[in-house]
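Tutorial sheet, problem 5. The two components below are modelled jointly, 929 residues in total.
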Amino acid sequence: MQRPLRQSGITQKFIGYLIFLSILPVIIVGLTSFQTSRSLLQQEANRYTMALVENQRDYLDLQLDQIESLVANVSGVEEIRRALEVTEDTTNTYIDLNTQAQIGYILSGYSNLRGLVSIDIFTVYGSHYHVGDTLNIDNIRQDVHDTLFQRALESDQFVTWAGIEDNVNANSTHTKVVTAAKILQNTDRLTLQQKPIALILVNYSVEALSAHFQQVDLGENAYLMVLDGENRILYHPDLRLLGQPVSASFAHLFTDTKDTLVQEVDGQVYSLNYVRSPKSGWVVLGLVPLQTLADKTSSIGRTTFVVMLFCFSVVGLVAFVYNTNVVLPIRTITNRFKQLQETPLEKQVALPVRGNDEIAELVQWFNAFQSSLLAKQEAEAQIQASLAEKEVLLKEIHHRVKNNLQIISSLLNLQMERLNDSYTTSVFEDSKNRVRSMALIHEKLYQSQNLARIDFAEYVANLTHYLARTYHADQIRLQLSLEQVYLGIDTAVPCGLILNELVSNAFKHAFTHQQSGHVCIKLRQNEAAQVTLAVGDDGVGLPADFDSSHVDSLGLQLVHNLTKQLGGTLTILDHDDDFALVTIFKLTFSVPTEREGLS
Amino acid sequence: MNKLFRFLFALLITLTVACGAKGGGDTAVSLVDQASPVPSGTNLADAPRIALVMKTLTNPFFVEMEKGARRAEMEFGINLIVKTAAQETSIEQQIEIVDELIQEQIDAIVIAPGDSLELIPILKKAQDAGIVVVNIDNQLNPEYSTALGLTNVPFISVDNRQGAYLSAQYVSRQIIEPGEAVIIEGIRGAQNAEDRKLGAMQAFAENPNLVMVASESANWKIDEAYTVTAAIMAEHPNIKVIFCANDMMALGAIQYLQEAGRNDVLVAAYDALAEAKEALRNGTLQATIDQQAAEQGYLGVWYALRALNGEELPTQTLVDVILVTVENVD
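Model answer (structure tokens):
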């Protein structure tokens, strides 16, 4: 069944309502819970990570504290200080070895700190004392030494934390270490100024730090990172990155002492929690990929989606059921109405009734309506058929009547031919014509479409021409001014008879003294249904003593009687405005309200 | 109907996409500028961890030994951990070091023990824990080892007695007049100290001109040797020859002799340290023995690796000694 698409059907509206009332809230709830849970999870993860990161910062600070106290201890030992003041020229092999041994003994006592790689003391006079992971200290990175010396000199802190640096001992297997530096100074008694006498370097193991941090669990795919004061990587799960400086844009992110950020790094979006140690200037940061968190909440999203699909399918199902049980029957009924309108007499089958709700009732009563409509249509058809039959019958009757009248007319005619005297003949002629005029009416009736009335103008024309032929009035001109007037049989018959009398009278009597002349017939009908039939001639005129009320001519008596029968009036005039008529018989009567008849 | 469903479907898709896509914050950032990974200093994670435990960090002899061990480390791709006690006499400390290594679940210990007896119990404990033990430089007492069940410990060293004999003989031969000889010993509990003393005594005994008047221990240390020499010289002014069981003690003795102006005393030593060679050049020392410390270190690590791989090793491996004098010092 085709329906134009621009119509919004009940089903569509129904679906629309359902969606707004039920599915939309579900979607809204689902979405909000999804977003809320996601942000909550993120918040919690951030809190946890921040706490963890702060713990690690505290751990680092603790380690640094231990090293600082180590440095403090070492720099406070008397023998070491004295040994450091020994200049180049006051040494020999014995003293050298002896001093090395002595300092070695002392430093050895401090070297138990877990994660310590080495303790080195470089005097400004070129001596080097060392305890550490290797005894072989003949290969020193002088550039590293010099840089550290300079930085420690310029720093105002007790211990300078250089961060992750190359090991000053090139022979050590720990190529990268975390270095703390301190300059030991003495006051020169001569210049009264501070002068440096030695550089103490404590190297802490990067591997020990890494081993510690690698055990810190931040969750799936999340990791820890530590940057030193120069934005070099102190710790990263990818150990190959240790010691490398981070990119400037990355370093730029950490401007505060403590913060949480969301940032895309190397193609993945992380939640960054960082904290900076005020002591060392190092930054500890935790990176948690948002995708991990998102994955956890994705189950909510999935569930919502599934529920939504389910709701949609339920809506679809309900709409389908509603469509079948409510909308389709309505549509069927509508179409059926249309069909009944367009092809009225076509037999239609009753619609099926389902269930017993309002729709079922509607269908039931529609069926009843349809069958009664069809019954009425059948009855009407029958009536129409019967009517047609009767029309035919009526036509036949008029035809028969006309024929019978014609027979009468012929009989009169036959009788007329056996007569000798003209008076009787003319009497028979008059009778014949009268009968003729009535037969003409019936003829006109059965010829016309409307069996109840005739076109009187046409009748007038036919009758007058027939009369003209009958009275051999070739010299007399007929002037007909006829409006279209329809008269019923009850009016037409007397009218026809009247006309017959008046015209016959004119032909017979008006032109006795002249050969030619005119006979004028006027037929009019005004808005008030008043008909005027006037017969006039320009013949000899009426005798002076003509009194229409006392006339012994049968014809004129007939006219009077018929006029009375019509309820009309007959007026006799001796002049006319339009034509040069001398005698005018004017008949006026009212036409009764027309019955439509069986047209 | 169709149009409606199409609209709904589109709405659905839009919502799903909106949920899924999360704005990645602001501009992306990369962690490091160039991805050139610097190889870290840490060695291979799976490599065997072998500890070299030496007596002290203050004797250059052990620097050489470490160098040899490092050479083996490079060559065999193992993880070498070097531990030393503070002084030659820090036996307790050495025992503690071994204990710590056992805790750290080291794979093998190559040890130059400060004492031939004291270290055996802890080494037995190490062996029981599945750690391979290799003995270098100073031999662990065999009887005590067997008694405690410490077996299968390969020993690498030199013939200390022979070496000491050669070194002492070199100076002893130079004495043509009657004179006194002194031996300055290493730690009395150490087998190598004992062996060197015997070797020196044997060399002195060959020269009828020499009489050994003193044999004192300076515990391998430079400063102690100084003091001991002072004490002996005070008692025996007619000393002609001093044999020191190692170079450090010899340097201590030489320092005293220089200060006392006794350039006539001939000193023989053992170890061939750079400082000793210097002394050879300037005539303060007469002879020393190169016991190829680096080689010992290298062999120690190598044997440990072989033992870890399940190989049977010789109980004793002797490295050659080389007598170093002013003639062949360079």
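Marking note: Chain A touches chain B through 66 residues (CB under 8 Å). Full credit if you identified this.
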